[in-house]
């Protein structure tokens, strides 16, 4: 549904995309993950028809994005980082304009707008001017304009940037609800959001998808299989090692806690969440359990940092 | 899975009207446009009373010629002010992306914007109609003179909109677009000043190419010449086409 092959884009001396190749299957939600300047926005802009690719192939819904927005027709809905709103327009009028601009017949425009407003929880704001909307509502209005013509593909550039935690949760649910009906490609800095929302993550570094044996087809499974457990324990090291040994198949990190004198910081990975078992064993060994935590996302973060650091500077 | 709505690739008028209507509504919602319009109408009335009517009895045709000349001066100021923001401001606020990613051609976007300025300026001209109508109270007015004068003002506005749209497309921000529009319109206007100091045949060409000197006064006198229609029409079309080329190149090179 979305496919790039050897995509290259040069801005003067800067090579923003350097042979980017990835594929997103129809009906799935994929994340473009990367540091600032990795080429995420450039990729989305090419796929949306805003930018012409220098070299390579970019196909969206079977259409060649090199032909621009005209060639893509109404196959794509695009939400840029700043929602493209007209401040003076009322929300319903704005959506009607966006729909008509993308070829929705006049007689269908009204129902489509109402349907979209309802789906995004914006029905009460239909008569509000776009300039008077809050930041979160502007984002919703931005998604609404991208969805109102029912495109098969949605491209969202940093859709959750600047939202408060409650809005992030709402937005995540909203985007997740599109799964199956639309192919969604979103860019984000937030690893945890990508892990929670995406079926697949394309890790970008210096204009290309990171290649690593741990990645399948240049992509990272969004939900990491393992758990990282962290414990802070007061007591002696040999007894702690002995207590945790049955739980750990590989080696684990054990070091004096940097902030708590006399305490030990332990970290190890396991295939499942072993917090309960670890806590029981520590207590039964007569050690003092000061802290216990599992950080699933840390694995993704660690892998992200490791992989993006490994990339040679081109 | 939903299917996209196909749109024919040939230029259709529908998006042009759609964009023109939205832009016109945008102009009516814009404080800058209201101020420009208010200043235009106020100054037209003031100058008409002070200069066109003037002291003592004068032939109606002379009064009308003065009126159209004064109004053309204000059109020269107002139209670039209304037009230079059309693309630059949208880029600044981010709404340009909506048009960029829609299945419409740059030409359709530009003609839509072009028509909106013509509509707004046309409305302003319509609101000045009471001024020449006052001449009816004191003398005789040839309707043809009125029509020719207003046609000239409309064509002058069209040419200025064309060059201002090109400036708006070229500018990276509002300020640069404004500077380009001022340079474009101003440069085109004062081209005739270069004619006397140039050698033939350049002097003749410069005099003919200047925006105002040879082409507007006939309209103000009530005369419509085909060459002047062509001149202003071509100016408008070339301006819009130049802007379209700029937008296409920006997509390719950006």
Oligomer: heterodimer
Q: Averaging pLDDT over every residue of chain B, what do you get?
A: 89
Largest interface: A-B, 42 and 32 residues
Helix content of chain A: 25-40%
The shape of chain A, in one word, is elongated
Q: In the CATH hierarchy, what is the architecture of the largest domain in chain A at level 2?
A: 3-Layer(aba) Sandwich
Number of helices of chain A: 10
Instruction: Count every beta strand of chain A, where a strand is a DSSP E run of 2 or more residues.
Output: 15
pLDDT averaged residue by residue of chain A: 86
How would you explain this protein's 3D organization?
The complex is a heterodimer of chains A (314) and B (254). Chain A has helices at residues 40-47, 68-72, 91-101, 106-119, 135-147, 165-176, 191-197, 237-244, 275-284, 296-310, and strands at residues 2-11, 14-24, 29-34, 55-60, 63-64, 76-79, 153-157, 183-188, 200-205, 208-209, 219-221, 227-234, 253-256, 263-270, 288-294. With 314 residues, chain A is of the alpha/beta class. In chain A, a hairpin with a 6-residue loop joins strand 13 (253-256) and strand 14. In chain A, helix 3 crosses helix 4 and helix 3 (91-101) runs parallel beside helix 5. Chain B is mostly helical and 254 residues long. Chain B contains 13 helices and no strands. Chain B has helices at residues 13-28, 31-53, 60-83, 85-93, 96-100, 106-127, 130-138, 143-170, 174-189, 191-194, 202-209, 217-220, 226-253. In chain B, helix 2 (31-53) packs antiparallel against helix 3 (60-83) and helix 3 packs parallel to helix 8 (143-170). The A-B interface holds A 11, 26-27, 48-52, 61, 68-70, 72-76, 78, 80, 82-89, 97-98, 100-105, 145, 149-152, 181-182 and B 1-7, 9, 15, 18-19, 22, 25-26, 29-30, 93-105, 251-252, 254.
Search tags:
heterodimer, A: 314 residues, alpha/beta, Rossmann fold, Alpha-Beta Plaits, 2 domains, seven-stranded mixed β-sheet, four-stranded antiparallel β-sheet, 10 helices, 15 strands, 33% helix, disordered C terminus, B: 254 residues, mainly alpha, 13 helices
């Amino acid at each position: 549904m979305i496919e790039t092959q050897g995509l290259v884009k040069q801005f003067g001396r800067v090579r923003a995309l350097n042979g980017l190749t990835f594929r997103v299957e129809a009906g799935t939600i994929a994340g473009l993950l990367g540091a600032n300047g990795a080429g995420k926005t450039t990729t989305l802009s090419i796929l949306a028809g805003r930018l012409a690719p220098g070299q390579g192939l970019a196909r969206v819904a079977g259409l060649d994005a090199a032909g621009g927005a005209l060639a893509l027709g109404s196959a794509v809905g695009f939400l840029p980082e700043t929602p493209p709103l007209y401040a003076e327009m009322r929300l319903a009028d704005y959506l009607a304009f966006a729909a008509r601009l993308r070829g929705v017949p006049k007689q269908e425009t009204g129902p489509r707008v109402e349907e979209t407003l309802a789906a995004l929880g914006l029905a009460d704001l239909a008569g509000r001017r776009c300039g008077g909307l809050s930041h979160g509502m502007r984002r919703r209005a931005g998604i609404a304009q991208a969805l109102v013509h029912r495109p098969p593909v949605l491209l969202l550039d940093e859709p959750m940037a600047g939202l408060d935690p409650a809005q992030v949760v709402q937005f995540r649910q909203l985007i997740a609800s599109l799964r199956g009906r639309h192919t969604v490609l979103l860019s984000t800095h937030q690893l945890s959001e990508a892990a929670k929302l995406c079926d697949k993550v394309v890790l970008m570094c210096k204009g290309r998808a990171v290649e690593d044996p741990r990645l399948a087809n240049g992509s990272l499974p969004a939900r990491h299989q393992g758990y990282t457990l962290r414990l802070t324990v007061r007591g002696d090291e040999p007894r702690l090692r002995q207590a945790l040994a049955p739980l750990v198949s590989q080696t684990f990190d054990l070091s004096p806690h940097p902030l708590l004198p006399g305490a030990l910081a332990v970290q190890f990975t396991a295939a499942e969440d072993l917090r309960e078992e670890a806590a029981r064993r520590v207590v039964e060994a007569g050690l003092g359990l000061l802290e216990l935590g599992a950080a699933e996302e840390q694995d993704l973060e660690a892998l992200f940092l490791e992989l993006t650091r490994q990339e040679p500077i081109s | 899975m939903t299917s996209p709505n196909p749109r024919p690739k040939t230029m259709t008028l529908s998006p042009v009207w759609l964009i023109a209507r939205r832009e016109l509504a945008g102009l009516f919602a814009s404080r800058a446009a209201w101020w420009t319009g208010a200043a235009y109408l106020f100054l037209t009335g003031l100058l008409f009373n002070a200069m066109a009517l003037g002291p003592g009895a004068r032939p109606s045709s002379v009064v009308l010629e003065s009126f159209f000349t004064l109004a053309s001066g204000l059109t020269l100021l107002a139209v670039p002010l209304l037009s230079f923001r059309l693309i630059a401001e949208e880029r600044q606020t981010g709404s340009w992306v909506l048009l960029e990613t829609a299945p419409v051609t740059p030409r359709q976007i530009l003609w839509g914007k072009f028509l909106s300025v013509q509509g707004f300026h046309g409305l302003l001209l319509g609101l000045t109609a009471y001024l020449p109508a006052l001449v009816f109270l004191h003398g005789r007015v040839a309707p043809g003179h009125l029509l020719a004068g207003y046609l000239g003002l409309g064509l002058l506005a069209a040419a200025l909109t064309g060059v201002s749209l090109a400036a708006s497309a070229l500018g990276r921000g509002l300020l640069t677009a404004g500077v380009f529009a001022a340079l474009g319109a101003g440069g085109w206007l004062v081209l005739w000043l270069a004619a006397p100091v140039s050698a033939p045949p350049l002097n003749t060409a410069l005099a003919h190419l200047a925006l105002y000197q040879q082409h507007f006064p006939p309209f103000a006198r009530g005369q419509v010449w085909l060459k002047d229609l062509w001149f202003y029409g071509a100016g408008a079309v070339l301006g819009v086409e130049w802007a379209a080329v700029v937008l296409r190149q920006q997509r390719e090179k950006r």
